[in-house]
Amino acid sequence: MNHLKNERSPYLLQHASNPVDWYPWSEQAFEKARSEGKLIFLSIGYSSCHWCHVMENESFKDDLVARKMNKTFVSIKVDREERPDIDNYYITLSQLMTGQAGWPLNFILSPEKKPLFAFTYIPRETRNNMIGMMDLCDTVDYLWNNKRDELLENANKAINAIKNEIKPERIDYNEAIENTFYSLKRTFDIEYGGFGSAPKFPEYHKLIFIMLYHKYFHGDIHMAVKTLTEMRLGGIYDHVSGGFHRYSTDSMWIVPHFEKMMYDQAFAVLAYTQAYQLTGKKLFMDTVHEITDFVNNEFFGEAFYTAIDADYKNIEGYYYTWDYNDIKDIIDDDFINDFNIKPEGNFISDKISGRNILYLKSEDKLNEKNMKILKKLKEKRVDSPFKDKKILCDVNGMAIKAFSYAYSVFKDRKMLDMARSAADFILYEMYQDGKLYHSYMNGLGPLANFDDHAFFISGLIELYNITNEKKYIDAAIQLNKKCIDLFYDGNGFFNSTGDFRMKEYYDSAVPSGLSAELQNLILLSFIDNNLNVFERAIDSVGYIIKNNPAFASAIVSSLIYYKYSYNIKGSKDFIENIEKKYVPSRLIELSNKNQVCDMNKCIYNPDEIEKILR
């Protein structure tokens, strides 16, 4: 066992028996590098990462590669989910230095942590213009000994480049909202939904923006409805067990990258719930219920887990695909045609062939007969891929908000029970001595970052909306004050307080913590006014919103919330009637007097309230 043997992270423990002498991120590792005059090999990944598994099996488990790495480097493993601050910093450097980034993310660092080279997946042997691990050790060692000054000069340039903050810029809110909608429209895939070409991520926050725009600016909702429908029919959705895979490798949502992430399930629940409110489409309601059952069965203990692996028996997708001969006695001809099954298989990868991904081309094929067959297929799944049961504060915040919101619409008790349990777990186990923690796995992990505060606060607000339990809103107010104290500098929010702190300017495949905190500031302003912080934080990303609005759609959604957020007070019947409506940005409180307040005034007249909220 190497130096990872006492770590809590499932990802680090996966590598604890590698012959590579891995260290966790620690001063011990850097001191060893300095004292022995060695470079650092930094490898960042996560437990359900397919290509992380590939690189481990090819190189890190190989004795010959390990001997060479141990001679050349001090090697450090980082779980990106446990240390998002380190991951964000080096992801940004990788994009700057190479124009690409992904996981595994591998860096060669000086003993002083300066970035010399950046890579994603590295094969064992050099091939197809990709340097292999065996050659890399020799090449890097030569360059470090013969061109050290040049390497360090380039590293310093990269470090200085990411330190440059974007200057705050005032923007016109209405113009920014319009530009974002039409920017998304330009990249929309008319045939299959989604944005851009393959690979396609389920960017739910873009769909949520489109629904907001439809509601308040009368824009076309087709982009959201088309995308949500096509995704639900495609292979990116697990038709047997429920839940969405990470992304689609093709443009048609058929062939997924098979890992399942809890944050995707959370945003899917939110997006499909809101789409159901706006359209009444049964498919969307059924999808929410299926994801709820899947999460409750597979992704939940006292709180929400993190991820389920793409690999099973060391083969990506094996668990989620089907051999025709194994299921021919269960399925019928209609099912075969409806779900595009072929005796020879419709899915081919590097390691398997002859297996089938289930996908549909029409939603009317989700009929009672086919659903019964899917249930029988589920019974054949007697085992499951590796499950990362690490509890992350930010991911749980996303899920608490999503299931709380869904409960207000569907009144499924499982939704409320999961949301409440997760919130209480974090408040009682991960919020100690006035400090919030980022992760929990057999004990507390590192302290919480900005995203942890932002998303957990948003979850607490939504949970308060449906329970009216004072402890949740009190905790939200208290944590928001801490969030401002820890991360706000008068211009915007840093993502952490440590050595790797940076400011978030974009939404990525998942919305930025900034987008969540902006809405928190709006809703909590009904109690504790911090709208000046909201306005300065928007200014801090004004340049991005103005020039790249499609990369800031969740952030721009907060501009709509700014115009259309409501403090709703009234009787239980009054509130239950409003919960049926699409009012996504709201603070709800039980009261003897029915009223709806925006930022400027309160309305008591029932007809006027109905007019505003319909």
Q: Would you mind describing this structure in some detail?
A:
The protein has 614 residues and is of the alpha+beta class. The chain has four domains: 10-163, 3-Layer(aba) Sandwich (Glutaredoxin); 173-310 and 388-564, Glycosyltransferase; 312-384, no CATH class; 568-613, no CATH class. It has 25 helices and 22 strands. The strands form eight sheets. A five-stranded mixed β-sheet has the order 1-3-2-4-5, with helices on both faces. Helix 24 links the parallel strand 19 and strand 20. Helix 9 packs parallel to helix 23 (553-563) and helix 18 runs antiparallel to helix 19. The longest helix has 18 residues, at 262-279. The model has no long low-confidence stretch (mean pLDDT 95).
Core attributes:
single chain; alpha+beta; Glutaredoxin; Glycosyltransferase; 5-stranded mixed beta sheet; 25 helices
SSE inventory with pairings:
Layout lengths: L9 H5 L7 E3 L2 H10 L2 E7 L4 H11 L2 H10 E7 L4 H15 L6 E5 L5 E5 L13 H14 L1 H16 L9 H15 L16 H14 L4 H12 L13 E2 L7 E2 L2 E2 H18 L2 H17 L8 E2 L2 E2 L2 E2 L5 E2 H4 L5 H6 L16 E2 L11 H13 L6 E2 L2 E2 H18 L2 H17 L1 E2 L2 E2 L2 E2 L9 H18 L2 H18 L25 H12 L6 H10 L1 H6 L5 H11 L2 E5 L1 H8 L6 E5 L4 E3 L4 E2 L2 H8 L1
Parallel strand pairs: 1-3, 2-3, 19-20
Antiparallel strand pairs: 2-4, 4-5, 6-7, 8-9, 9-14, 10-11, 12-13, 15-18, 16-17, 19-21, 21-22
What would a concise description of this structure say?
The chain has 614 residues and is α+β, with helices and mostly antiparallel strands. The protein is built from 25 helices and 22 strands.
